[in-house]
Inverse folding.
């Protein structure tokens, strides 16, 4: 069967260029079904479980149909929470990278005056929570009469949170000449009534059937890491577990190439597979992997489709996939024929909520593991070397070296000689120049929300200097720094949180008066 590509769906070249840059090789089921229908002009009810790529499913066609600024808001997207509004906006910024469109997220918890100022300058697409959007409508700041697209994202969640009246009030502000796109994981009666009341009679209901997600024979674990330690964390895991056959998954083709290059430089027996490789290259790599001539295969989701290799002991999610279904497909490469398999996933603090979604949807338990210490690696290698020595002694193949050992015995203690030989073997088997005993682990970090972003030209170096100058907080207290278009998130050691908020809030960073608070809600 021919692989579906984004270029088959009718999107314009600017959107396709942005999607390619994001690293997505092919559309998810909901994207493949919904995008052409939206481009044809129909109202759509999209029903699919959380984690299937719904933002791109509505965002790509809406942005693709954008005809340039008209001086009015042309699209409004409603989400149930502030965190989801930020997340949706951030993805739409990436999808619209090559399009001249102005986006703005609006939600409670941020000064409304700043949002009013931005809106008065002219915005094409608004992503917001119902309460804040309605507030701005009542202040005569948001005018939805020219809206061409109205999107209700996670509609069932908005109804559960009691937003039905706000939503109806907002819909009534929108012009009748619009496309209405409603996305929901479930379809309760309230959603059906809403759709019947406010959507066109020829609206298309697209439901992606929830696949059975069976992972019962697979032991699933996760490691909480810092982004900068991702590669070293992988090396530590491989050095301790020493899997005989493992598939390592990356999200993008470039990610595969970079990881393979880094692993090969450290002596791992590894090759990569992704969509840019020819069919012959992919077949040859897969043949070598099946025959046991490769220990590790690094692949994208698309390239790994159809891989049927027995005795894969480990699947490692070096990066999380685009959707939950892909996670299940990935880890299903191990634990076959009723054998037990092991699946490891590397996640940063920012990705932790996605991991909890995977647990919920797959009805499985993903247990936490600590990143191996240098001592853990040493003891694992020591046991392995000891077992190999014992096996060699039992086979008596070593006897031709007895004269050499006797020669060394005249000059050195044979226990010291054995230890020296083991040290040589250990040195060759260690893939990384480990310096710190423990890395990663962000469980003692608190995530802070800051009202500065890329638009203020802030960078991590300036942020660290600002923290140090104003709150006497050092870089060792700071974890991940995620700078988005208009906001930032910073992981901070628990002991430094109060000092930062007390001493930095209200002061200017890159010309903007900073507001800093603990991030709440889902992410």
């Amino acid at each position: 069967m021919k692989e579906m590509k984004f270029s088959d769906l009718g999107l314009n070249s600017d959107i396709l260029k942005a999607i390619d840059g994001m690293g997505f090789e092919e559309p998810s089921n909901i994207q493949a079904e919904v995008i052409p229908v939206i481009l044809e002009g129909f109202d759509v009810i999209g029903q699919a479980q959380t984690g299937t790529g719904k933002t791109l499913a509505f965002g790509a066609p809406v942005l693709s149909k954008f005809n340039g600024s008209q001086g009015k808001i042309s699209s409004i997207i409603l989400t149930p929470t502030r965190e989801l509004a930020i997340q949706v906006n951030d993805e739409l910024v990436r999808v619209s990278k090559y399009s001249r469109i102005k986006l703005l997220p609006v939600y409670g918890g941020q000064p409304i005056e700043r949002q009013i100022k931005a809106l008065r300058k002219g915005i094409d697409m608004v992503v917001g929570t119902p309460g804040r959007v309605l507030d701005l409508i009542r202040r005569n700041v948001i005018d939805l009469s020219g809206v061409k697209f109205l999107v209700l994202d996670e509609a069932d969640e908005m109804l559960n949170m009691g937003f039905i009246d706000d939503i109806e009030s907002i819909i009534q502000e929108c012009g009748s000449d619009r496309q209405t796109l409603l996305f929901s994981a479930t379809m309760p009666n309230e959603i059906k009534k809403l759709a019947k009341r406010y959507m066109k009679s020829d609206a298309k209901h697209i439901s992606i059937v929830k696949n059975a997600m069976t992972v019962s024979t697979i032991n699933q674990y996760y490691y909480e890491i810092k982004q900068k330690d991702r590669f070293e964390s992988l090396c530590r895991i491989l050095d301790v577990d020493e899997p005989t056959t493992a598939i390592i998954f990356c999200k993008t083709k470039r990610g595969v190439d970079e990881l393979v290059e880094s692993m090969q430089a450290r002596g791992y027996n590894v090759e990569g597979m992704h969509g840019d490789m020819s069919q012959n290259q992919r077949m040859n790599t897969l043949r070598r992997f099946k025959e046991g001539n490769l220990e590790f295969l690094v692949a994208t989701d698309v390239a790994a489709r159809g891989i049927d290799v027995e005795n894969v002991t480990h699947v490692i999610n070096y990066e999380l996939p685009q959707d939950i279904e892909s996670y299940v497909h990935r880890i299903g490469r191990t634990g076959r024929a009723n054998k037990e398999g092991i699946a490891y996933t590397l996640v940063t603090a920012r990705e932790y909520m996605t991991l909890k979604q995977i647990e919920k949807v797959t009805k499985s338990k993903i247990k936490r593991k600590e990143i191996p210490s240098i001592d853990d690696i040493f003891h694992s290698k020591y046991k392995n070397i000891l077992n190999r020595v014992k096996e060699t002694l039992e086979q008596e193949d070593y006897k031709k070296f007895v004269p050499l050992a006797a020669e060394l015995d005249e000059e050195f203690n044979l226990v010291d000689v054995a230890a020296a030989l083991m040290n040589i073997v250990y040195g060759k088997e260690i893939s990384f120049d480990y310096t710190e005993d423990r890395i990663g682990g962000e469980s003692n970090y608190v995530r802070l929300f800051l009202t500065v972003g890329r638009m203020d030209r802030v960078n991590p170096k300036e942020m660290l200097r600002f923290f140090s100058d104003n709150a006497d907080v050092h870089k060792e207290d700071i974890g991940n720094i995620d700078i988005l278009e208009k906001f930032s998130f910073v992981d901070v050691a628990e002991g430094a949180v109060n000092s930062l908020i007390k001493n930095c809030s209200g002061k200017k960073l890159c010309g903007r008066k900073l507001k800093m608070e603990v991030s709440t809600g889902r992410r």
